[in-house]
Amino acid sequence: MQTKNKVIIIGPPATGKTTITNVFFKKANPLRLLNKPLEPTRGVNSNLFSLFNSQLGIFDLAGQENENWFTHRKDVFKYADIIICVFDITCSVESIVPFLINILNIKKNLNFISDCEIYVLIHKIDLVNPSYISQKIKIIENFFTKQYPTGQKIKIFGTSITKDYFYDTFKIIFNILKSSLEMDIIPISNSDFQDLKTELEILLYFDPLEVMKTEKLESELDLSKEDLLFHLRRLKKLGFIDILSETNKVKSTKRSEFFREKLKQEVSKVGLTKENKGVKLIHMIMELNPISA
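-> structure tokens emitted (293 positions)
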């Protein structure tokens, strides 16, 4: 039986809330969103996904309407399991702290979300140096540790959809879901592992944005045409390749380029095993699927 979980994503306008939803849940191309920012969200943008034994309702709240969420429309937080607050790295501590106090007050006053976990994403960290990021996070953490010594601990992470941070941000998002929700992570079966192993071998075989004939992949990876097509379709589902069917060619995407470098590092340490963090992450991404309304 699937459990139902509600995830609220909230923050000031233009901090990257909808981009995070599109890139990490809808598998959108990160480069396209970096080059062409999305139009502001209006009201509530809600999406439903399945992940293992859970249904995830992702509610992206318009930043222009925060005053409304904090006053007349507090019911939007009802039954929330996770609240993710997204701030641009350029947001001042003086603006972040009152915002989070509002969230904590809602949590305190509305007992129906007493068990919900609160996370903070300091987004677009590619714009500043690492020492600035750690300093800002430490200041915010110290404030809430002193003001709420026995209360809710707010967990803060630095994130970005740019190439250098893409893989780590993916892990942060999925670790939030995994640790906060009563989610049975289905173990990777032997057959699933063999499929994932083949797909990661295909992914690692490509040079960035290389166009390759399917016949070459069949030969190099010792796969039949049918087996290769099966794996290519699964990689396309993840947004990692484009299949150029009319020319029997495939090419890797920017999304796969952003993912590949860190994956290579993990594979070089422990190989392609069931315990490899990259394999586990791909397994979770593969299991995340939209549910039609």
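The chain has a mean pLDDT of 86.
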